[in-house]
Automatic annotation (TrEMBL):
Record-annotated membrane-spanning stretches: 12-34
Taxonomic classification: Bacteria, Pseudomonadati, Pseudomonadota, Alphaproteobacteria, Rhodobacterales
Compartments, as annotated in UniProt: Cell membrane
BP-aspect Gene Ontology terms: protein transport
One term under GO cellular component: plasma membrane
The species this protein was found in: Roseovarius aestuarii
Keywords, in A-Z order: Cell membrane, Membrane, Protein transport, Transmembrane, Transmembrane helix, Transport
InterPro entries reported for this sequence: ExbD (IPR003400)
Name of this protein: Biopolymer transport protein ExbD/TolR
Length: 129
């Protein structure tokens, strides 16, 4: 009589896989909440196929032309630029509202360049994602 040879099946290390997936979930939950929240009534301009970074400190421009920096209203471009530290004056990031007229945005960029900014970066919806 021949004996049947039993094949031993090797179990997958599912506990280790579950731990890794859980750690990734926690990482993305924490990483998604690190950036400073923008004003809730602001609707961003949408663009596609642009590379971008999350805005560290930006000048927020609302549809009515009102400006805010770090949650506080800004009276003028000159006051905003003068209040910035020296190391942050070269590149200025602007987050415009979707309904802000393009003429207003272009004039704002010109004022920032005239104040001394070497580069004005417009942050859009795609750049924040």
């Amino acid at each position: 009589m021949m004996r049947r040879h039993r094949h031993s099946t090797r179990r997958e290390p599912t506990i280790a896989l579950i731990n890794i997936v859980f750690l990734m979930l926690v990482f993305f939950m924490v990483a998604g909440t690190l950036s400073r929240p923008l004003d809730s009534d602001l609707r961003l301009v949408r663009t596609a196929d642009l590379e971008g970074r999350a805005p560290p400190d930006t000048l927020v421009v609302h549809a009515d032309g009102r400006m805010a920096y770090r949650g506080k209203d800004v009276a003028s471009v000159k006051a905003f630029y003068a209040a910035r530290p020296e190391e942050e004056r070269e590149i200025v990031r602007v987050v415009p509202d979707e309904a802000l007229p393009a003429v207003t945005l272009v004039n704002l960029a010109r004022e920032l360049r005239a104040a001394g900014a070497s580069s004005v970066v417009i942050v859009t919806q795609r750049g924040l994602e």
